[in-house]
Amino acid sequence: MSARAVLTTTRSVRRRLDLDRPVDLAVVRDCLEVALQAPSGSNAQRWHWLVLTDPDQRAAVGQVYRRACLEYLDSPGAAGRLHEQDPERSAVQQRVHSSVAHLAEVMGRVPVLVIPCLRVPGGGLPEGNQAGLWGSLLPAAWSYMLAARARGLATAWTTLHLAHEREVAEILGLPADVHQGALIPTAHHTGTGFKPAPRQPLDEVLHLNKWA
């Protein structure tokens, strides 16, 4: 696959995750090797990666995720409540809402769950701008997802479980100075391949030199 093809067809896959086909851990490791080539602030490389394959661990995290997801789906900011005044975009949002609800029910059964984490000196997160902090982890997590796509795997990006981050940390035995950045279900996918998603025209969001 070309770089453009990988970048434009790496979708958040929720309904089409194959829950029954095992994922070769060697392939996941290969994707993480790619992820470790991403940039990090001061080249500190404070990232850590939890890869969950144990059924009990996956089920336990899945239960927390389901609870967090149901809270989200009932909130004003849920996907299905966005763009209600635009029939075309609302229809897309309703499909996203439905797929999020589906993932909530099956998260604990996805063959591999990957949780990218940061180890923060002193343990506490800094006040104010944290862009540099999370910018030292999230590009690597995205690289993992791109590498998985290139190898025929499907993933989804979600952070909903972070509403109960400490509970998940206790399940996983995380030290107090380790903070989770995302939850990435990883599986083979059902059906055919993926295509680019509808997006706003570039000129509606592009600003040259200044906002106006």
UniProtKB/TrEMBL annotation:
- Asked if Cell membrane is a keyword of the record, the answer is no
The record places domain Nitroreductase at 9-177
Q: Any idea which UniProt keywords this protein has?
A: Oxidoreductase
Check the record and name the InterPro entries matching this protein. Nitroreductase, Nitroreductase-like
Tell me the superkingdom of the source: Bacteria
Q: What are the protein's GO molecular function terms?
A: oxidoreductase activity
What name does this protein carry? Answer: Oxidoreductase
Query: Which species is listed as the source?
Result: Kutzneria albida DSM 43870
